Amino acid sequence: GAGVSQSPSNKVTEKGKDVELRCDPISGHTALYWYRQSLGQGLEFLIYFQGNSAPDKSGLPSDRFSAERTGGSVSTLTIQRTQQEDSAVYLCASSFMSGDTDTQYFGPGTRLTVL
Amino acid sequence: GDSVTQMEGPVTLSEEAFLTINCTYTATGYPSLFWYVQYPGEGLQLLLKATKADDKGSNKGFEATYRKETTSFHLEKGSVQVSDSAVYFCALSHRTSGSRLTFGEGTQLTVNP
Fold first, then answer.
1. Second label for B38, Cα 20 to 30 Å away, from A104, B21, B62, B66?
2. Does residue A1 register a pLDDT over 60?
């Protein structure tokens, strides 16, 4: 079946612009996670959804970052007033449940470059 | 908070050599432990996992044993192939951390023919 998909695959933007990154999880997966992969910071957790609610937003680096999930499916990560330090690969993952033993399946990522 | 420490890379081996990538963790209670792999140009894939102490995860010839006493989850393979060249990430998931994954720094493995 289809895996986790993300769009766009690449995004180049100018400093100060807003960007939206989209994630389509595996059908039936109730948990959805956003991570960021950057050279200086490695792989960092950003936010996680169980259904449409976000019990854990602790990884969002600033109030310029927000995310939502609708219909228990698609999620959008929004970065307002982008900065150069936001340049990274943004990864989305989904799992059937949010238990700590459940396997998270990752999408291919969106590479964001802020000029 | 939870943390994962991996051996520093990069690691370069010849084909058929033995591989060990060390991973240790800090966490309260009993986290689940994972190894993820990222092949060139591809996304992260689960390689193996172990959910309780003394469990051994295995896949594609790779193995790792959950050692509670040493808080370790070292990755091993008896005979590596060129196709194993990738970046390997050790990770843990813990209920007190909302089941999110906490990753190590990643280890770049290059296998030469």
1. B66
2. no
